[in-house]
Amino acid sequence: MALLGTVAGFATFGVAARGLALTMQRRALSSEFVGYGVSAIALGGVGYFVHGLEQRQTELLKERREILSANRARRAEEATA
Q1: 26 three-state secondary structure
Q2: Which of the residues 18, 48, 50, 56 could staple to 39 if both were Cys, CB 3.0 to 4.6 A apart?
Q3: In angstroms, how far is CA 40 from the centroid of its own chain?
Q4: PANTHER family from the entry (predicted)?
């Protein structure tokens, strides 16, 4: 569910950015609907990448935390011995 939310959020941001760009250019919001699709797909892809990146970083942090906990336990054991 988080993947869908991330991709949809980024795609929505892409559509909103396209609408803002057209507004700043003082063009009709209904002009060139293809641009909305391209923006949604491009930023949806960015959202997919960000989700994967977040998952990889979470896994790396989890592994690093386990290593640090093991080292801390080993040092505590050596200190008491």
Answers
A1: coil
A2: 18
A3: 15
A4: OXIDOREDUCTASE 14 KDA SUBUNIT, PUTATIVE (AFU_ORTHOLOGUE AFUA_1G12110)-RELATED
How many Cα atoms occupy the beta-carbon half-sphere of 55 within 13 Å?
9
Residue identified by tokens 């994967």 is 52
| Rg value, the chain, Cα | 23
Burial of 11 (0-12, 13-18, 19+ CB in 10 A): buried
pLDDT of residue 58: 97
DSSP state of 28: -
pTM for this model (two decimals): 0.80
- Predicted confidence (pLDDT) at residue 1 exceeds the cutoff of 80: no
Give the tens place of pLDDT for each residue, 17-58.
999 999 999 999 888 899 999 999 999 999 999 999 999 999
- Residue whose tokens read 């609907």: 33
